[in-house]
Write a structure and sequence with these properties.
The protein is mainly α and 283 residues long. It has twelve helices and two strands, in the order H-E-H-H-H-H-H-H-E-H-H-H-H-H. This is TetR/AcrR family transcriptional regulator. Keywords: DNA-binding, Transcription, Transcription regulation.
């Protein structure tokens, strides 16, 4: 669980390539101590009641309200009504703070029902929806490259709960991790698309409807030209907002996993082999 892609799965797959920040870029040992509460206690600060927990919570609030670009030790200190230097009694700096924030917002639900009805498919389905909701609550997560997370209690607790529900798939351990990565990666892409659409509206001042209406005259002429017969033949609701593209994609991924699981159980594939990889001589 601490090497390679297993580490990627244990965090979220929110590895936004080219993100503005990178998890695990600070003092890894010190960050682990802070996450697991195994390090030395901070000296008493000048502001009564200041705690590491309050610092992390304030940092999350700043990122939620103003974006990750606004996050700094000075900004968090201002939010807490204290001096910047007082924060350094509790943690080394912004890099370690970010890792604590990541673990804070990814705390798994304590309600077993939030992971479905007990079956592996419902568990992955619930995980996908919960992850999308997480990115909607904290869009700044998409700006963090989490390909190498520092694993804290939230990350490991969440992974433990999901894996305990999907062990019934009967797959090998690498395949189980890959199933989680597949769903999580899909959700990250969907969340990023939704966030970009919201940002585009804010930056341009045009609603989505206004944006497409501005292109309508040219597009309608092109559709009548005969150059794009398939596009021209699409129904009027093809690009409508009523269709739930996220749910459609999520269910198709789960359908594919279900076919794979069924084939494995029926002995259609030897453990660890994938469809299409057998030697033709084997029949």
């Amino acid at each position: 669980m601490t090497r390679g892609k297993s580490g990627t799965a244990a965090g979220t797959a929110g590895s936004a390539a080219g993100g503005t920040e990178t998890s695990g870029s600070g003092d890894i040992v010190r960050t682990q101590q802070l996450l697991w509460d195994t390090g030395p206690r901070p000296s008493r600060g000048p502001k009564p009641g200041l705690t590491l927990d309050r610092i992390v919570e304030a940092a999350v609030q700043v990122a939620d309200a103003e974006g990750l670009h606004a996050l700094s030790m000075r900004r968090v200190a201002t939010e807490l009504g204290t001096g910047t230097m007082s924060l350094y009694r509790y943690l080394p700096g912004k890099a370690e703070l970010l890792d604590l924030m990541l673990d804070r917002v990814q705390r798994p639900s304590e309600n077993p029902a939030d992971l479905g009805d007990g079956g592996w498919r419902s568990a992955l389905e619930a995980m996908g929806r919960a992850t999308l909701a997480l990115y909607r609550r904290h869009p700044w997560l998409l700006q963090v490259n989490q390909s190498r997370p520092v694993l804290g209690p939230s990350a490991l607790d969440g992974m433990e709960k999901v894996l305990s529900r999907i062990k019934s798939m009967g797959l090998t351990d690498p395949e189980l991790i890959s199933a989680v990565i597949a769903v999580d990666g899909y959700v990250v892409g969907a969340a990023r698309t939704q966030l970009y659409a919201q940002e585009a509206e804010l930056r341009t001042g045009l609603t989505d409807v206004e944006f497409w209406q501005a292109q309508a005259p040219v597009l309608e002429e092109l559709m009548l030209s005969g150059r794009y017969p398939v596009l021209a033949g699409l129904s009027e609701d093809a690009f409508g907002t009523d269709f739930d593209h996220f749910e459609f994609g999520l269910q198709r991924i789960l359908d594919g996993l279900e076919v794979f699981v069924t084939r494995r159980r029926e002995g259609g594939e030897a453990g660890g082999e994938e469809a299409g990889t057998r030697d033709p001589a084997d029949g």
